[in-house]
Amino acid sequence: MILKLSNKADIIGASASFLCLIHCIATPFVFLIKSSTAVCCSETPTWWQSIDYIFLIVAFFAVVHITNNKRSKEWIKFSLVVSWIGLLLVTLNSTYFLFHISNEMAYIPAISLVCLHLYNSNIFSFLKTSK
To answer: What is the CA radius of gyration of the chain?
Structure first.
C-alpha cells in the first residue's frame, strides 16, 4: 500500500513538474503571439501567473509525501526539497522581480524535479544499483 501511494506521489510530482516545464517553455510563445495581435496589456495575465502557483502547490504535496516516505533515499529527499525551493524562488522572483535573473532559470529546478520523481518511482530502475 505504501509503495503504491509513494509511486503515485512520484508520478503526480513528475507530471506536475513536467507540466510546469511545458508552461515555462510556452510562456514566451504565448506572449509573442499576444503582443503581435494586441497592443494593450503588456503585463502577464493574473490567470497565467496563477498556473505557476498551482504547479508549485501540487509539487509541494508530492515532495512532502516523498520526504515522509521511509522507502526513499535521503539524497533524493534532499534533492527534491532543494529543487522545489529553487522553483519556488524563481517563481516568486518572476512575479515580484526581486533579483535580476533570467526566467529560464526555472527550467533547472523543473527538470530536476521531473528527473528525481521519475528516478524515485523506479521508472529509471536500470540506473539504480542493486544491493
So the answer is: 17
Dig out the grid coordinates for 124 from the structure: 529509471
- What is the DSSP code string of 4-30? HHHHHHHHHHHHHHHHHHHHHHHHHHH
Q: Is residue 91 within 8 Å of residue 106, measured between CB atoms? A: yes
Q: What is the pTM of this model?
A: 0.71
Give the residue extent of every domain in the chain. 2-127
Q: Above pLDDT 90, what percent of the chain?
A: 13
CA 99/CA 102 separation, integer angstroms: 9
pLDDT in tens, 47-76: 777 888 888 888 898 899 889 988 888 999
Q: Are 106 and 24 in contact (CB under 8 A)?
A: yes
Kindly tell me the sign of the dihedral angle through the C-alpha atoms of 57, 61, 62, 64.
positive
On whether the CB atoms of residues 92 and 98 are closer than 8 A, the answer is yes
